[in-house]
Design goal:
Helix content is 13%, strand content 42%. It has 7 helices and 28 strands. Strand 11 and strand 12 form a beta hairpin. The longest helix is centred in the N-terminal third of the chain and has 16 residues.
């Protein structure tokens, strides 16, 4: 069983290798073969990996791995594995995967046995020419690094160097594979960008993403707790009802009912549209002079306009979702509306959230498709984001990828029952992972 899993993993690797190069270098997560870092030219025309500095942190609950990646990198989640690389899409994954991450429950967790099993398994796979194993420390946990080569698909006489790293932590063996573009040409160390990524990795207990029969509870790296309840189907509206896989709706809602009742100020209320910061009075207002023109949202200071943004078309969902003060900064949330008409002239609307702080858009600053649901939790900023299909939360300047394919928000009329509920120390919301719906609570849970 173990060897079969190893073979499957390596076959997948070799398929990727047929069209892509691999990862790079070493540092504080020390590899025993580490040399003085040197920048080497790459064999293709892509930007030098050694010049890229990781700047965006991601926590993947389902893998129990936190990692920092360059800002232009994307990730793609496939069953049991996460792929990462610059500009990565499902169409170019074979060429643009520079790193992949996965877990394995079926291999030994002691270093000697793990080394034996993994190296023996790799030797049974054809086309692997050289193997070298070193011990390594990643995220404070000891593991092994297996350095291996195979003929390059474009030039069989030119070897490609790979690094497969296996680290036991929290009851799992984490696999981190650096592709050749991040490994130096001598195959002895990672390039600078690869080493920076490796140094950023940390491990924590997983929250398994499944349509499981069990509700999952976990402490997140953000210092918040999360409880996730898989549902048997989409929630019903009017009145809101849902059927959990485990337990009942009444039991689940009763658990944190007191905390959910400690509501923050309604983002749509007048009181959430003005504030005083540093002796100045700030106010947010919606303006639309003509039904055919865009809705505009304006922020003023002491009665003078300091910021204005288009919120798109008139629609059933409000454009202005609140104005907050955060450490002498003003924060605005806007819902952009785009009206669509079908062939039978029925109106539909696309909505996109955007959070702006002191005139700077979080969407643009952090490369998000959408940011929404802003609030202050224990005095620290909390909000949701969608970044290249990764749905998660940000809290106190850190981000957490929750692994969802959608988080319900900005619903109108009866669908508003699925919008997030914000309270002082907790947020409740509905989300999806592919076809499975979830009811989720995150915060400082009591």
């Amino acid at each position: 069983m173990i060897v079969r899993r190893i073979l499957f993993s390596l076959v997948c690797l070799l398929l990727v290798a047929c069209s892509s190069p691999v990862l790079a270098q070493s540092g504080s997560n020390t590899l025993s073969t580490s040399l003085t870092p040197t920048v080497f030219p790459l064999r293709d025309t892509r930007p030098p990996a050694s010049s890229i500095q990781p700047t965006h942190s991601i926590d993947m609950l389902e893998l129990g791995i936190g990692i920092t990646l360059p800002p232009d990198w994307s990730i793609i989640k496939q069953p049991g594995v996460v792929l990462a690389g610059p500009g990565l899409t499902t169409d170019n994954a074979m060429e643009q995967t520079w790193l992949h991450l996965s877990n394995n429950e079926d291999v030994p967790q002691t270093i000697p046995e793990l080394t034996q099993v993994m190296t023996e398994g790799m030797r049974t796979v054809g086309h692997i020419n050289e193997l070298a194993t070193t011990r390594i420390v990643v995220g404070g946990s000891e593991g092994i690094a297996i350095w291996w080569t195979q003929p390059a698909p474009r030039d069989p006489n030119q070897p490609e160097h790979w690094v497969s790293i296996y680290v036991p932590a929290h009851g799992l063996v984490h696999e981190i594979v650096f592709h050749p573009i991040l490994v130096t040409p001598d195959g002895k160390q990672l390039k600078l960008a690869g080493q920076a990524i490796l140094d950023s990795i940390r491990f924590f207990p997983t929250t398994k993403a499944s349509s499981a029969s069990q509700a999952t509870t976990a402490e997140t790296p953000l210092g918040l707790s999360i409880e996730e309840h898989a549902l048997k189907g989409k929630p019903e509206l009017e009145p809101l009802t849902f059927e959990p896989v485990n337990g009942t709706q009444q039991e689940i809602l009763r658990k944190h009912a007191a905390q959910r009742s400690e509501r923050t100020t309604d983002a749509l209320s007048d009181s959430q549209r003005s504030l005083v910061l540093g002796g100045d009075t700030y106010a947010a207002n919606v303006a639309q002079t003509n039904p055919s023109r865009d809705v505009m949202v304006e922020v003023s200071r002491n009665g003078k306009s300091i910021y204005i943004i288009s919120a798109g078309d008139v629609g059933p969902v409000p454009a202005l979702w609140g104005l907050w003060g955060n450490n002498n900064h003003w924060v605005l949330e806007v819902a952009h509306t785009t009206e669509k008409k079908s062939a039978n002239n029925v109106k539909a609307y696309d909505l996109t959230g955007e959070i702006i702080q002191d005139g700077v858009s979080f969407n643009r600053q952090y490369g998000c498709q959408e940011t929404f649901g802003f609030q202050l939790m224990q005095g620290k900023p909390f909000y949701f984001f969608n970044m290249r299909g990764r749905w998660g939360v940000a809290y106190a300047g850190q981000t957490l990828d929750l692994g969802y394919s959608n988080i319900s928000h900005y619903g109108c009329c009866s669908a508003s029952a699925l919008n997030p509920i914000s309270a002082e120390n907790i947020v409740a919301f509905f989300a999806q992972r592919e076809a499975t719906w979830y009811y989720v609570e995150i915060g400082v849970l009591r």
